[in-house]
Amino acid sequence: MEQGLSNIPARELDKFIENNLLPDTRFRAEVNAAMDIMCKFLKERCFRDAAHPVRVSKVVKGGSFGKGIELKGRSDADLVVFFNNLTSFEDQLKRRGEFIQEIKKQLRTLQKEKKFQLEFEMPDERWPNSLALSFRLRSPELQQEVEFHVLPAYDVLGLGRNNHTPDPQIYACLISECTSLGLDGKFSTCFTELQQNFLKDRPPKLKSLIRLVKHWYQLCEEKLRMPLPPQYALELLTVYAWECGSGDTEFNTAQGFRTVLELVTNYRQLRIYWRVYYDFPDREVSKCLLRQLRKDRPVILDPADPTRNVAGGNPEGWWLLAEEAAAWLKYPCFRNCDQSLVHSWNALVRSCHHAVTLHTALAEAEEPHECVLL
């Protein structure tokens, strides 16, 4: 697949995505049908006979599958099970083992009932008290599968509020608990629906570009065999490149791809966040953002969780990824018919300029909301 991508002309990238990366519509429909059954089952059955009041309030498909940016034949997703009647993020942390065991018990029951067209596979229990749980939905006929990771979560947003900007008090509580526990970014699953909404209504072509970048990232993973920055960071970087460089529903895919790889090569200049669900005017959020934005770059904040820098913690991984990106920028997939190089968007220029401006603002601004948004 690397040879197939790197050697095709820039004008054929859209065809490559269509033929190799877009998910099979039948398989996606079968997975969705199975997941609807599973979500209903867990909501009705988890802790049904327990004396305590904790129950499942909702079950949400997260990750690439939930956002609609999964790759053909190589899908993975999160199944986020939200529990009500918890009073804090710390409660989720303390009781996650109990939640996982209950979910596991109910999924084993559902597995025996064989209600799906797809094969439902759960691995053997080598560690019965594990705090992690995964399962697969597989179609032998289509030779495709999706792996789900099950994640219990505190239902801090509540029902019917996930399409709106959260009450700043929710983020104040999140920031306070993350600070006291020393666990920045560890409760981002509680904001899964906001992460989905951030991508849900984006143009189909942008989602295709994200798939192309993810495919490139996975090729780098296979080649380097070393821990790389999270794939989610590349997804967000692609959205940023499109917002700054194009913003159109139709665009040149090669230009977008080149822009993302150029941003990767300049990772030391990245300081990116979005004011969609949180913003500077709230005092606690402002302090958190200032603390995050002063950290060593790259900084790419989760648009749904200001405590989570999805780009942090792996400078060696970024260096390796940047080396790969620099090599790829010379490949035929970035050349036009006349062999000239495809031009990138101007997102890199804006990123560098804003990074300098923001640095100055952080040092001089008396009011946090004066800081420049990347």
Detailed description of the structure:
It is built from 13 helices and 8 strands. A 5-stranded mixed β-sheet has the order 1-2-5-4-3. Strands 6-7-8 form a 3-stranded mixed β-sheet. α8 packs across α9 and α9 crosses α10.
Parts with pLDDT < 50 across at least 5 consecutive residues: 349-361, 363-374
Radius of gyration: 22 Å
Number of helical segments with 4 or more residues: 13
Strand content: 5-15%
> Percent range for helical residues?
40-55%
The number of strands is 8
Characterize this entry briefly.
48% of the residues lie in helices and 13% in strands.
Task: Offer a few descriptive terms.
374 residues; alpha/beta; 8 strands; globular; disordered C terminus
Secondary structure blueprint with pairings:
Blueprint: H1 2-6, H2 13-20, H3 25-45, E1 56-62, H4 63-67, E2 75-83, H5 89-113, E3 119-121, E4 133-139, E5 144-154, H6 168-181, H7 192-200, H8 204-224, H9 231-245, H10 253-265, E6 271-272, H11 283-293, E7 299-302, E8 305-309, H12 315-328, H13 347-364
Parallel strand pairs: 2-5, 6-7
Antiparallel strand pairs: 1-2, 3-4, 4-5, 7-8
